[in-house]
Structures are given as structure tokens and as C-alpha cells.
Write a structure and sequence with these properties.
- This protein has four helices and nine strands; from the N terminus they run H-H-E-E-E-E-E-H-E-E-E-E-H.
- The protein is α+β, with helices and mostly antiparallel strands.
- It has a single domain, classed as Sandwich (Immunoglobulin-like).
- Strands 1, 2, 3, 4, 5, 6, 7, 8 and 9 form a nine-stranded antiparallel beta sheet that branches.
- Strand 6 and strand 7 form a beta hairpin.
- The longest helix has 11 residues.
- The radius of gyration is 20 Å and the shape is globular.
- The relative contact order is 0.20.
Length: 179
């Protein structure tokens, strides 16, 4: 009897190639690392896969290297420009909805934790958006770009982002509030 059941389980299991090609599960938060003007910048997107017509929170942590570890930078003045990215969005239906989306601007405001800044955005349509962060950190002008992909997973730039992330085993310590 058991000899008859074993081949039946093999038939019901998905092929090994299909399991290998499956996209990774959607994360609760997506964290991107950048280096701007000699400072380490960590961008956290909550939720990891933004949804259309719901609030997406973007936090930016800026620190510089210190003798005892990362030192938060509190002198940043940043703004964000969010616009539809039609080049990245391949689906025709999504592009049609994105054409109606107007560019948005947001001030990136300081949060209670030292060295942490953030903004909220509600994406009006499904598809890919390009966020351009620009401003000053201390005396230097900085600019970087990253993607927000509403209702799109895996993100089109996921492999490029994973390749550019640092691979050290040390995790980044959170920047704590000074009391």
C-alpha cells in the first residue's frame, strides 16, 4: 500500500524548477542602503510592497562613521519628488493608469529619533514610481533615486538592489533617541 502512495506524492509535488523560479515572499519592510557625501543612508519602505490608495511610509536614516560606531546626522534638509516611472512598468494596463498620475513633491521631515527623517505618500495607481531624494547634508548637495512599486512584486529592480547591498554579517545598529 505504501509503495502505491509514494509515487502519488511525487506526482502531486511541484517540479523542482518551479520551486526555484518562485519569487521570494513579499517583505514587511524593504530596506535600501546608499552612500551619499560620505554618509551611510538607510531607506526603509513600509509596507515592503506598497498598495495603491494606501499610505506608504518612507524613513531615511543618515549616519556617519564615528570612533565608537555610527553617529546620527541631524543637519540634513531633504525633499522628495515622486513621479510615475513608465520605463520600468511593462504591463500595458498599469502604464495606462500611471499616465494619469501627476508628479508629487514631499518635504522629508525630521522624526523624533536622531538622524531619522521621513515622509508619507499615497500612490494613486498600481505600477512603478521613481522617488528622487535631493537636498543638503551638512554643507554638501546630495541626490539619490529609488523605486516604489505599488502592487508589484517582485520589484523590477529587486535583483539590482540585492546585488548592491552590503553582504557583511554585521547588522546595522538602530540610532537611538537622545534623552
Amino acid at each position: 500500500m505504501t509503495q502505491a502512495l509514494i509515487p502519488l506524492f511525487w506526482l502531486m509535488a511541484p517540479p523542482a524548477q518551479a520551486v526555484a523560479d518562485a519569487p521570494p515572499p513579499a517583505p514587511a519592510a524593504r530596506i535600501l542602503q546608499r552612500e551619499l557625501a560620505g554618509k551611510q543612508v538607510s531607506i526603509e519602505i513600509l509596507p515592503g510592497v506598497p498598495k495603491m490608495n494606501t499610505v506608504t511610509e518612507v524613513k531615511v536614516q543618515i549616519s556617519k562613521k564615528g570612533a565608537a560606531g555610527p553617529v546620527p546626522v541631524t543637519t540634513a534638509r531633504l525633499s522628495a519628488e515622486i513621479r510615475a516611472d513608465l520605463k520600468v512598468t511593462k504591463d500595458r494596463k498599469l502604464r495606462r493608469g500611471l499616465r494619469k498620475a501627476k508628479p508629487m513633491g514631499r518635504w522629508v521631515h525630521s522624526l523624533p529619533d536622531r538622524g531619522t527623517y521621513g515622509f508619507h505618500v499615497t500612490l494613486p495607481a498600481s505600477g512603478s514610481y521613481l522617488v528622487k531624494l535631493s537636498g543638503t547634508i551638512g554643507d554638501s548637495e546630495v541626490e539619490t533615486e529609488f523605486g516604489l512599486h505599488a502592487d508589484v512584486w517582485p520589484a523590477p529592480d529587486l535583483q539590482a538592489e540585492q546585488a548592491s547591498q552590503p553582504t557583511s554579517g554585521r547588522s546595522r545598529r538602530p540610532l537611538l533617541r537622545r534623552r
